Amino acid sequence: YEETGCTQKKCPVYGRKRTRCWQAVGTFCNDPLQAGHREKWDDCRNCQVFKKSTATNAARIQEMLNNIIFSISNYASQESKKIRLIKKNFVPFCQCHRLTVRQQEVLLLVLKNPSRQQMASALGVAVETVKMHLKYLYHKTQTHSQQELIACLLNFSAE
Fold first, then answer.
1. What's the rounded Cα separation, in Å, for the pair 24 and 20?
2. In Å, what is the CA distance from 25 to each residue of 15, 34, 43, 68?
3. Percent of the chain surpassing pLDDT 90
């Protein structure tokens, strides 16, 4: 924001000195709101600030390495947060929704994101049985998909 004189106060890097704008999602550089890191880096390669910061091949390579490390640590941090939420919310979530032991097993499998065939194999049942378990699980938790079910668990609050 310093280099370009940006005035977008809602931008996540506005007022943050020495912050790489290409490592922040949600900046207002090209579009009203930019997408994830990979798409953002592609957009930022044409930015004058990025070009100035990475004028040499060595600087470009170093910045690519910085971006990869940033992305990995950001992903690891998000995954770590999810794991903590799952550990914290799992039992209260299951109790609140009165999930059976089998439904809890299915929920644990959903968290691993396998195919229905893989779930059936893990549970020792037919794929149609997995579909039935998921149907009842969605009904009890008032969700409609595996992604929605996971989000419901992650956002669960017993209070």
1. 7
2. 15, 6, 12, 15
3. 35
CA distance 13 to 46: 18
pLDDT digits (tens, 9 = 90+) for 100-153: 989 999 999 998 888 999 999 988 999 999 999 999 999 999 999 999 999 999
**Token pair for 101:** 């032991």
39: Cβ contacts below 8 Å, ≥ 6 apart: none
Sign of torsion, CA 120 125 126 128? negative
Helix (H) or strand (E) holding 80: helix 57-96
Phi, psi of 25 (to 5 degrees): -80, 145
Alpha-carbon radius of gyration of the chain: 22
Q: What is the pTM of this model?
A: 0.57
Q: What angle do CA 68, 69, 71 make, to 5 degrees?
A: 65
Identify whether the C-beta of residue 130 lies closer than 8 Å to the C-beta of residue 116.
Answer: yes
The residue whose two tokens read 């690891």 is 76
Instruction: Give the pLDDT confidence score for residue 129 in this predicted structure.
Output: 96
* Residue tagged 């990475």 (tokens): 54
Q: Are 40 and 28 in contact (CB under 8 A)?
A: no
